[in-house]
Design a protein that fits this description.
Elements lengths: L2 H6 L10 E3 L2 E3 L5 E5 L2 E2 L14 H11 L6 H4 L4 H12 L4 H14 L25 E5 L5 H8 L3 E6 L2 H13 L5 E4 L12 E7 L7 H14 E12 L4 H9 L15 H11 L3 E7 L32 H8 L2 E3 L7 E6 L2
Parallel strand pairs: 5-6, 5-8, 6-7, 8-9
Antiparallel strand pairs: 1-2, 2-3, 3-4, 9-12, 10-11, 10-12
Bound molecules: S-adenosylmethionine.
The site of S-adenosylmethionine (SAM) has 19 residues, from helix 5 and helix 6.
Length: 346
């Protein structure tokens, strides 16, 4: 971990500086936090998780404390049948981190990606803007697609997520691809960093899963992270989008439970963000699958080595375009879109 980042870490409960001793982080009150495969785990023990999958982190930490080895494939929350497939793929020569990420992609990034096959390149998007060395915290990073995208765009990027398994895959994947990023296992509601630690915060498809109460706490934490010139960018579902309405209709417009998406209206989001952070603007984010614009390869920063169309591709589009098709991008489209990007400044 880089020195600048280590200096910013605090105990997530007391917000006091941490010292590093014997491979772990020690709080002033004597509590200690493990570092697993180079990832500090800074989760408060008594905070109920927003996603029950984070409970696995507790088990992994306890294994790490006992000095037991942690198997990457076991560490992720996937069905046993999927894990068996991954093991077979790895036995056939695939990289374990990539094999795990190929299974995480459809779960964390939308079912537009569900046909990723062994050997397919991992779809890393292009970050929507260029950075000039500013520090950026990607909240709810999972396997790190936006963390990597931000680092490639010139930010000093740090990914944060409460699920240790995906972060382990993220760290190995970034290292294998020569991308300089750090990952912290933590919770958006008690970020383990000092006040004004970051120039930028970014979060995609994460706060939309939080209850209003958890969302307000997380937004308060984002505000705390940013200095006076800071900027927060958060993508969330928009209540009024056609696909959003379809999803809500499918669940009978009932109140969301557990980690289900909360569909909020733009005025509701604007008021939450401006109350917690400061002046906020909203932009439409359009997935071209809904026809606002034709797909362009530039949207997703396509890398060399994208797979050739496969027999499973029956849409008529070359497969690489179908993937790009699902990459959302900011757009000046005025029709109600499924996603909104909230840009807030303290
Ligand atoms: C739909 S995924 C989005 C992942 C990533 N942002 C992306 O776009 O690829 C939601 C992520 O939020 C993470 N998450 C769940 N609860 C969280 C919390 N309390 N704090 C931070 N992240 C959380 C999940 O572990 C998951 O990785």
């Amino acid at each position: 971990m880089k020195d600048w980042l280590r200096d910013l870490l605090v105990d997530p409960v007391e917000r006091q500086p941490l010292s590093f001793a014997e491979g772990r982080l020690v709080a002033r009150n004597g509590a200690y936090y493990p570092v697993v495969e180079g990832i500090p785990v800074l989760l408060p023990a008594d905070l109920p998780p927003t996603h029950r999958g984070a409970m696995r982190t507790v088990k992994l930490v306890s294994m790490a404390r006992q000095g037991l080895p942690i198997d990457l494939i076991d560490a992720v929350n996937l069905r046993e049948a999927l894990k068996e497939q991954i093991r077979r793929e790895v036995a056939a020569g695939s990289d374990a981190a990539e094999a795990v990420i190929r299974r995480l992609v459809p779960l964390s990034n939308g079912f537009g990606y569900r046909d990723l096959a062994p050997g397919d390149a991992i779809p890393v998007p292009r970050f929507p803007e260029r950075g000039g060395g500013e520090s950026l915290l990607d909240i709810g990073s999972s396997w790190g697609r936006w963390t990597i995208a931000a680092a490639r765009a010139g930010f000093r990027a740090v990914g944060l997520d409460p699920m240790l398994g995906p972060l382990m895959a993220a760290k190995r994947f970034a290292a294998n691809n020569g991308v300089d990023v750090d990952y912290i296992c933590g919770d958006a509601r008690c970020l383990p960093f000092a006040d004004a630690a970051f120039d930028r915060t970014f979060s995609y498809s994460t706060l939309q899963h939080f209850s209003d109460q958890d969302c307000a706490v997380a937004l308060g934490e984002i505000a705390r992270m940013l200095g006076p010139d800071g900027l927060s960018t958060v993508q969330m579902a928009n209540w009024a989008g056609v696909r959003s309405l379809w999803h809500q209709a499918r669940r009978g417009f009932r109140a969301p439970a557990r980690f289900e998406v909360r569909y909020r209206s733009l005025p509701q989001m604007l008021s939450m963000f401006s109350a917690a952070i400061g002046p906020t603007t909203a932009r439409s984010i359009v997935s071209s699958a809904w026809g606002c614009r034709r797909p362009t390869p530039a949207i997703c920063g396509r890398r060399r080595g994208w797979p050739a169309p496969s027999p499973s591709n029956s849409s008529g589009w070359p497969r690489r375009f179908r993937r790009c098709d699902r990459e959302p991008t900011a757009c000046s489209c005025t029709r109600p879109s499924n996603r909104a990007e909230m840009i807030a400044q303290p």
